[in-house]
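Exercise 7b. Backbone tokens:
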């Protein structure tokens, strides 16, 4: 007898799904979140220490560099002071334009040229005018004055005037362009004014039988002739020239000494002063000798006292000037100059 199969057929869809396999969880970070916070904090601290170290080193290097820079500047300053100097220009004797273009002559053109040369020299930080003169012709004095004013404007270098035994009239006019004036207590200065001298030989010539006749294009062409007496009209014309030149002199002194024109005119009546009187009146700044003037110029020029000195002419030029002056004394030029009677408009003191 066949056995009956009592098993019930199974529906696969009705079978329950097998349980999913378990995925292992990632291992927990050692120490957790607190650990990483500690790591970040440690790195931050290390970076701060490193930054502080770099800043300290940079600061030390900067200080060392600043010290080296200061030493370098000091060394450069010392080297510069050895080269830096005060220039000296001598203005001796009556001032005139000069009768030649020789470089060793002492005419106003040569003096002005030396002023320009020294002011253009980069090693020369200040200039001293060593003045010992009673003055001279208006044009030549103003030429030197203009050279000083131009040099000061272009180079900004200080000028110091030093007065010797005499620095009157035109000598003072030149000094008024300077930043500082130094004089001896007994220096003769002042004589601020203008003079036009005319010699009248008419009476003498009549005695010896000499008579002069001038053929002229106009009535004023022989003005100032020593052969005749001056007319009233001529005198008035010349006085106008004197007054105009005098106003120029007063204006220069008032500007240079920082005085009013009225105060300057009160001092500018032609009288002379000693250096000490001039100091009291504000016409000079201090009393002293040439070394005082050089020291003052060195301080104004920023190189201090007892500066190196540069003269305005080379030894060869000084030698030629000496030889030339001796040769002139042996000849007739000195006599001719002494006897010259031509009129001249001058900023000059006639005491010498």
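Sequence design result:
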């Amino acid at each position: 007898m066949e056995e009956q199969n009592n098993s019930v057929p199974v529906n696969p869809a009705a079978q329950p799904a097998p349980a999913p396999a378990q995925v292992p969880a990632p291992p927990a970070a050692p120490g957790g979140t607190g650990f990483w916070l500690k790591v970040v904090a440690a790195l931050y601290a290390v970076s701060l220490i490193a930054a502080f170290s770099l800043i300290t080193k940079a600061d030390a290097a900067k200080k060392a560099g600043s010290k080296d820079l200061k030493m370098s500047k000091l060394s450069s300053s010392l080297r510069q002071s050895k080269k830096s100097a005060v220039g000296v220009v001598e203005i001796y004797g009556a001032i005139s334009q000069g009768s030649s273009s020789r470089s060793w002559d002492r005419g106003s053109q040569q003096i002005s040229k030396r002023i320009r040369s020294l002011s253009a020299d980069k090693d020369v930080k200040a200039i001293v005018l060593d003045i010992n003169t009673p003055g001279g012709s208006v044009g030549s004095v103003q030429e030197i004055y203009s050279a000083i004013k131009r040099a000061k404007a272009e180079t900004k270098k200080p000028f110091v005037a030093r007065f010797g035994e005499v620095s009157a009239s035109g000598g003072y006019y030149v000094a008024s362009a300077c930043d500082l004036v130094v004089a001896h207590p007994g220096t003769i200065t002042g004589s601020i004014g203008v003079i036009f001298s005319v010699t009248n030989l008419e009476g003498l010539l009549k005695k010896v039988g000499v008579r002069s006749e001038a053929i002229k294009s106009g009535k004023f062409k022989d003005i100032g002739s020593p052969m005749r007496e001056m007319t009233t009209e001529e005198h008035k014309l010349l006085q106008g020239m004197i007054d105009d030149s005098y106003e120029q002199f007063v204006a220069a002194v008032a500007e240079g000494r920082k005085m009013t024109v009225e105060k300057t005119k009160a001092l500018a009546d032609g009288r002379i002063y000693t250096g000490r009187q001039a100091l009291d009146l504000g016409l000079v700044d201090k009393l002293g000798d040439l070394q005082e003037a050089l020291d003052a110029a060195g301080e104004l020029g920023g190189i201090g006292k007892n500066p190196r000195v540069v003269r305005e002419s080379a030894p060869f030029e000084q030698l030629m000037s000496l030889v030339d002056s001796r040769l002139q004394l042996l000849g007739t030029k000195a006599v001719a100059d002494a006897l010259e009677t031509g009129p001249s408009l001058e900023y000059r003191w006639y005491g010498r």
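Instructor comment: The two ends are 182 Å apart (CA to CA). The CA atoms of residues 172 and 190 lie 7 Å apart.
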